[in-house]
Every structure is written in C-alpha cells, then in structure tokens.
C-alpha cells in the first residue's frame, strides 16, 4: 500500500493503458485516488487497468482521448467531471509519442505531429482542467517529460524539443497557479522498461546508454509511478515548478 494517501481525490492519467501511464494509474489508485485513465486505441488494455483497480477496491473509468483534438479533450474532461460529480483534483499528462529518426529526415509533418501530441496536448488538457482546480483552491499537475528534454536528442530531435518545452511549460504553470494551491511539477525518467522504449534499448546507442547508467540498470515503471504519487500527495505541497529526475544517475542537472 502506498504510504501517501490520496483518499478523496480524483485523478486523470492520460495515456494510461500501458507502460508508465498504466503504472501511474495503478499507483494513484493504490494511494486511494479515484482514477480516470485515457487511451487512444488500446481500449482493451485500458479496460484491463480499470479491472485491476476495481479488484483493489478502487474506482476507475477508461475514456478515449485524442490529445491532438481540443474537442476530444473537452469531451473527456466533461465525462470525467460527470463521472466524479466534481472537477478533477490531479492531472498527469503522460500521453506522448516517440519517433526515432535522423535529424535530416524529420519532415514538417513529423515535427508538427510531435509537438501537437507531446506539448500542445498537455497545454490544452491543463487549460481545460485548471478552472476546476482554481475553484477548489487545490490541485496537482504532473507532466511526464524525459531525460532527452534535458540533454538533447541524437535521433529524436523533435521528441527532445517537445519535452524540453514541456519542462518550461511546467515551470510557467507553477509561477501562474501555485498561489491557488495548485502545484505543477515534471517527472523526468531516463531509460524505462516499457514497450515504447524497446526500439531504443535494442539499438547500439541505446545499449551503450543502458551500460553507462550509474545504478547499473534501467528503471521499472513502478518507480516512476511512486514519484508521481508523492508529488500528488499532501506531503509534497511545498514542491512546485520542479523537475524530478528518475534516471538512475544518467543525468544530474
């Protein structure tokens, strides 16, 4: 059982059907939060997470979301509010895409799709959910970023740029809304054992990076989830505008 109690709180986790998002949804539910998790295509996987949460005695619902669509975001937020019968307390922007390719082959369309998903999506989700948090005078926003957004990308330049911008957006939210009791923080994983990371981990560059991790291993998704649960807790109420590195010592900045 999580040591941090989120009983009485409700949470949104975008991209919660698998990988880090799945671990976060389960972790927040274990801490006592009611959870809405979103999916784009993996409805079956999302419903499995819901059943896991319900088996733990928690409450959860899976909702479809296209983070590139403002209409889809509005519909999802309205459905979540109706489900909880009140505004969201916690928002975890986890939904993202990755796209490994050389810098010279990145097209305008690939660049625009990356930023629409990884940056504009979290911006729009926050814009649609912040009014309820302001009214409640309490909220937690956690944006899942990446070590790539801190030290740059070799074969994922557009991905790294989107995550770097998301770190700055996180800081802007903290400056604007911390006075309302709403904290905004980023969690920056290094290499994590997820489906999304498998391609990189099997490349020569990925294997070299994994071998150089000071802790000698890649992260488990549950370690990322535990950090998110802490940032959403009352105990973390004085932490805002920060980027917490969960990278095994790969980067110290």
Summarize the structure.
The two termini are 31 Å apart. Helices cover 47% and strands 15% of the residues.
Which features does this protein show?
47% helix, 7-stranded parallel beta sheet, 9 helices, alpha/beta, 253 residues, Rossmann fold
Task: Explain the layout of strands and helices.
Blueprint: E1 10-13, H1 19-30, E2 34-39, H2 43-55, E3 60-64, H3 70-84, E4 90-93, H4 108-136, E5 139-144, H5 148-151, H6 157-177, E6 182-189, H7 198-201, H8 204-211, H9 221-232, E7 243-246
Parallel strand pairs: 1-2, 1-4, 2-3, 4-5, 5-6, 6-7
Helix pairs in contact: 1-2, 1-9, 3-4, 4-6
What does this structure look like?
This protein is an alpha/beta fold and 253 residues long. It has one domain: Rossmann fold. Helices cover 47% and strands 15% of the residues. The protein has helices spanning 19-30, 43-55, 70-84, 108-136, 148-151, 157-177, 198-201, 204-211, 221-232; strands at 10-13, 34-39, 60-64, 90-93, 139-144, 182-189, 243-246. The chain has a 7-stranded parallel β-sheet with strand order 3-2-1-4-5-6-7, with helices on both faces. It is globular. The protein starts with 9 loop residues before the first strand and ends in a 7-residue tail after the last strand.
């Amino acid at each position: 059982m999580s040591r941090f109690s989120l009983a009485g709180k409700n949470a949104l986790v975008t991209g919660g059907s698998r990988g880090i998002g799945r671990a976060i949804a389960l972790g927040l539910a274990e801490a006592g939060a009611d959870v809405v998790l979103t999916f784009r295509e993996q409805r079956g996987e999302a419903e499995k997470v819901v059943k896991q949460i319900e088996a733990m005695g928690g409450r959860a619902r899976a909702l479809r979301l296209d983070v590139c669509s403002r209409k889809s975001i509005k519909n999802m937020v309205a459905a979540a509010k109706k489900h909880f019968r009140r505004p969201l307390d916690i928002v975890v922007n986890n939904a993202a895409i990755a796209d490994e390719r050389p810098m010279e082959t990145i097209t305008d369309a690939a660049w625009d799709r990356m930023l629409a998903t990884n940056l504009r999506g979290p911006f729009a989700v926050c814009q649609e959910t912040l009014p309820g948090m302001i009214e409640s005078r309490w909220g937690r926003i956690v944006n899942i970023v990446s070590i790539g957004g801190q030290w740059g990308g070799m074969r994922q330049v557009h991905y790294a740029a989107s995550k770097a911008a998301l770190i700055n957006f996180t800081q802007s939210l903290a400056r604007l809304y911390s006075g309302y009791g709403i904290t905004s923080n980023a969690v920056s994983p290094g290499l994590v054992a997820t489906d999304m990371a498998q391609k990189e981990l099997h490349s020569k560059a990925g294997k070299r990076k994994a071998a150089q991790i000071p802790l000698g291993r890649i992260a488990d998704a549950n370690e990322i989830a535990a950090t998110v649960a802490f940032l959403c807790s009352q105990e973390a109420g004085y932490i805002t505008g920060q980027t917490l590195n969960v990278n095994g010592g790969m980067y110290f900045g």
